[in-house]
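User: Run a structure prediction on this.
Assistant: Running it now.
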Amino acid sequence: MGIGAHRCGAGLAATESKAIMASMAEAQDRLTSDSMRREKRAVAGNSVLAALVITTLKIVVGVLTQSLGILSEAAHSALDLVAALVTFFSVRVSDKPADADHQYGHGKVESFSAFIETGLLLMTCVWIVYESGKRLFFYNVEIEPSVAAFVVMLLSIGVDVWRSRALGAIADKYDSQALEADALHFFTDIWSSAVVILGLALVWAGRQYHLEWLRKADPLAALFVACVVVNVSWRLARRTMDALLDAAPTGVRNQIMDRIETVDGVLEVERVRIRKSGSRYFADVSVGLARNVTFQRSEQISDAVKSCVHEVLPDADVMVHSAPRAGRTENIFDRIRAVATRHNFNVHDISVQDLRGQLHVEQHLELDERLTMKHAHDEVTRLESEMRTEIPEIATILTHIESEPATIERGEEAVLDPGLEKRLRDVVRNFPEVMDVHDFQFKRIRERLYVSCHCTLPDDMPLSRVHDVQTALEIRFKHDAPELFRVLIHPEPVTDNRR
């Protein structure tokens, strides 16, 4: 009693410990999630404010100087402001947890915002190219490269360096596609702003040294900005479309499949599907397992498969589907049991004889005792037909139908019968393999007499021989004591009785 109480207490303590650890892990996840949301929203909000200030300054200076390069940069920054606003709101939405209507979360909002940014950038390119073509081939616009223009562009470069680094750091930390898109925008803005400054410098040099051809430097600089924007747009478009179309990361699927194939018990990897929603991956894996594995073993293999996926994608949400398959090492007994298990039937005492090159099967099948004879026979006929179809080398099948108890039998009384016990012990003396017999129990249930006992057998006796001895002893018991309805013999090794 003390040992049982100690074990019970230990089990409760272990359960409570696991619950506490799970609660602590959940609390830690919430803190991490809250920290992530705060950092992402803060950096996105700062980007919006910076874009607003820079865009305003560029528009003012661009209008005053009539520089297409600055105006193109102003247009670019204006669209960046719109993109930053889209990013800011998409980050707020994408961090919402999954719900009944969005079971994979709201992470796709970030990909959609990046798609909008791509479209806005391409619109910018169209306007810049159109205006540059007019200034290069149809009319000239006098540029006033003032000190304010240089100051604003240099200030723009400084701000872009700051926010590109800030956005990039948070994007890498939380794998945010929207923030990464903004960081890439502002990094390219640094180079495009530098080109605009170069164009203004060349225009100023042309005026100072009376070189008319340098007047074309400003629209050429604007065209270079357009080329930069097209390049950025194309890169963003590819990544955005991949995310929206659930394209798997390059090489990741093969890495996962290679790892899963090494899991003991996996016969084949049928399918690996990967999709990304925001910063999180979802993996759908289907593997083939031997059809005779237990449910518990199937769960163990599934856990091992999930671990393999997490080695490649650490934070992935993994769903594993196991499909039953015929194992390469199945024998005919396994195949017979597999057909029965498919219908949730329990077969035992399967015997297969090879008579003149033909296989004959005998088996015992347990069916619900409440079935009628007709219903039970129909079930057996269907099962035997399916076995012959799936295992064509079987010539005949003979099934012994047993009733599977569906109710708990209520014992009427325990019986003490020393005379009957002595008769049974005398029977055991005819079996030299049986080293000892003990713990006889007699019970009367529904006017039927049941007996059970323990038999000691050699440790090294093969199990097949153990079964033969048990069966022969049961037969002799019933022969010498016909009043017995059921006999149950529990075999024990010699070492078990020496403890």
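Residues 2-65 form the longest helix (64 residues).
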